TrEMBL record:
The lineage of its organism: Bacteria, Bacillati, Bacillota, Bacilli, Bacillales. Residues 30-164 form the DinB-like domain. Pfam families: DinB_2. This is DinB family protein. It comes from Paenibacillus faecis.
Length: 172
């Protein structure tokens, strides 16, 4: 079973995401998150989907698109680092990505299908990795980090946004 990464395996600003991930089978958690996201957002109305809880905040559709896009970026980093590529990998501007995503023009169902497809690809990649691959290190967003840390960041990032959706958008 994959163990949680330690300090030094990721930039400090990723700590809140890593800390949100419970102990246990990470790949199973990642698979179950798809069902949780679909159960939570699969029945929302269009009005709920474009709701913003405050001025300048993203809509629910934009949050869902952001989670999928961020996972794409993190999975790409995971692929490169796990394969032994030590080329420094740049950060990205999440707000720029959201502003060009056209998420609000897409249906909730389409966004959910996209998230599920990205997650299936992420888990497929992770299932290929051996112990040595998980321990490999590289540089992403100007900080050293491990492949293992990226897996936990992916899971924790989704948990973080699910919590925000429940608390601020749907008030569950």
């Amino acid at each position: 079973m994959l163990k949680k990464p330690q300090a030094g395996e990721f930039a400090e600003y990723f700590s809140p995401y890593v800390e949100l991930v419970p102990e246990g089978d990470l790949l199973l958690l990642l698979e179950k998150q798809v069902d949780e996201v679909i159960a939570l957002l699969g029945q929302i109305t269009e009005e709920q989907a474009v709701y913003r809880y405050a001025e300048g905040k993203w809509s629910l559709k934009e949050v869902l698109g952001h989670v999928a896009d961020t996972e794409r970026v993190m999975s790409y980093r995971l692929l490169r680092i796990s394969r032994g590529d030590t080329t420094p990998l740049p950060g990205f501007d999440e707000s720029l990505f959201v502003s060009h995503s056209h998420a609000n023009a897409r249906s909730v169902n389409e966004l959910l299908q996209d998230f599920a497809a990205v997650r299936i690809a992420t888990v497929s990649l992770m299932r290929q990795l051996d112990d040595a691959a998980w321990e490999r290190r590289g540089v992403f967003s100007d900080h050293p980090g491990s492949a293992r840390a990226l897996a936990y960041i992916i899971a924790g990032h989704a948990i973080h946004h699910l919590n925000i959706v429940k608390e601020r958008y749907l008030k569950v």
